Amino acid sequence: MKLFRRLLFWLVAVPLLLVILLQAYFLLQICWWINFNPSSTSFMRQQLSVLQEKNPDAQLQHKWVPYNRISTHLKRAVIASEDDTFVDHEGVDWEAMQKAYEKNQKKGKVVSGGSTITQQLAKNLFLSGQRSYLRKGQELVITYMLEACMSKRRILEIYLNSVEWGVGVFGAEAAAQHYYRTSAANLGAAQAARLAVMLPKPRYFDKNQGSGYLQRRTELILKRMNYAEVP
């Protein structure tokens, strides 16, 4: 009986405790970031490591700017393109996730996530780009932590300052400088729409800026932007 209890402890209790401690770590980090800006994210560190494998001196293009120094055009464009119910949902768009699940089932692999802006931020802050249902489960837990602790405005501010926008390009300020030689505050509507459309495949569009899809999708987002609600 003692041996059974010992095995049960190591097989169940210890892994469960480690999971709880990990969630506590995530929560403490999120609480800290309510008032303090993250200097980097898990995804940024991963991409820097990849770049430095080829060039040890490689650095990321990234500069934090406050919410009020990011163009409203960009905020509207990103919401219109990535998550048009951002201000209304509680972190997860279950209808979008159901559609993504059905698509994945047809393909026989994970090809779509149906992620909201908050879910994307959860992944960028703490997780990897690898697609799996286990990672998706952890992403959901972190998503609800973010929504419980932060305002929509703060979530969008951190997202726009940390999301990938090209090869080694992270955040709205770096993206504005990289593509348009201007600041995030001065982005026009068309520029903002184009940047928003790049988000699902930023490294691809960084190298393929003449893409016909990019132009067509940009025109569509330009029409939708006026209807996007910004926190």
Structural notes for this entry:
The protein starts with a helix and ends in a 7-residue tail after the last helix. The protein is globular and about 70 Å long. Helix content is 63%, strand content 3%. The mean pLDDT is 89. The chain is mainly alpha-helical. It has a 3-stranded mixed β-sheet with strand order 1-3-2. Helix 3 packs parallel to helix 9, helix 5 packs across helix 6 (133-149) and helix 5 packs across helix 7.
The percent of residues in helical segments reads 55-70%
Distance between the termini: 58 Å
Structural class: mainly alpha
How much of the sequence lies in strands comes to: under 5%
- The outline comes out as globular
- Poorly predicted segments: none
Number of helices: 11
Give the topology, please.
Elements: H1 2-32, H2 42-54, E1 61-62, H3 72-82, H4 94-107, H5 117-126, H6 133-149, H7 152-162, E2 164-166, E3 169-170, H8 172-180, H9 189-198, H10 202-207, H11 212-224
Parallel strand pairs: 1-3
Antiparallel strand pairs: 2-3
Helix pairs in contact: 1-6, 3-9, 5-6, 5-7, 9-11
Protein traits:
mainly alpha; globular; 231 residues
Question: How is this structure best summarized?
Answer:
Its main location: membrane. With 231 residues, the chain is mostly helical.
